[in-house]
Amino acid sequence: MLNIKKFAILALLCVCSPLLKAQNLSFGPTIGVNSSSLSGLTDTKSRTGLSTGLFLNYSSTSHWGFGMQVLYSQQGANYERSDDYLKLDYVQVPLLATYYFGSQKTTGSWRPKVFAGPQIGFLTSVANKSGYDYAGSYSSTDVSAVLGAGVNYALSQKMWLNLDARYALGLTDIAKSPTLEVSNRVFSVNVGLSFPLGTYK
């Protein structure tokens, strides 16, 4: 767990370093709700969990932007025929290219956006309701494709409220089984608050 945290912090610093002198760089906290499922695992249904963390965004003076996030994400699935569940906790690192509609940045303005990009996840724990550890049965990493849309609301000229909905499609088989293929499916709704870093236009 400590090594994963160190990697996430190092990755965030690597992205920050070349952009610290850039214009329109912002950061902030984000929190949301996941509805996750496990494709390939029979007799299961979606499970609700928490998604929370930090983000760093760079936006050009036109319409394009790039963002990185480091998120703690509760995923997994509930079993249909019992009250048991399988909970997979990840540290997720999405790298997202964003297109912003409109150019208004005055207080009270809305700016819709769409975004997409890859996401790598690091498994921190996997267990059922009774606490049995299934870490040996699942891969420690996961790769997903993320697609989403949202809107930013200008609370002031340099501070924004960020709202988005996204879907993460797992691209890798996370089950260590020769007969079973399992992949993550996660829909999430998130809210965040962005603050400027350095010069911001």
From TrEMBL:
Segments forming domain Outer membrane protein beta-barrel: 22-174
Signal sequence annotation: 1-22
Pfam families reported in the protein's UniProt record: OMP_b-brl_2
Stretches of the chain forming a coiled coil according to its record: none
Keyword Signal: yes
Domain of life: Bacteria
SUPFAM superfamilies named among the record's database cross-references: OMPA-like
KW Oxidoreductase (keyword) present: no
Keywords: Signal
Protein's name according to its UniProt entry: Porin family protein
Organism: Flectobacillus rivi
Native organism taxonomy: Bacteria, Pseudomonadati, Bacteroidota, Cytophagia, Cytophagales
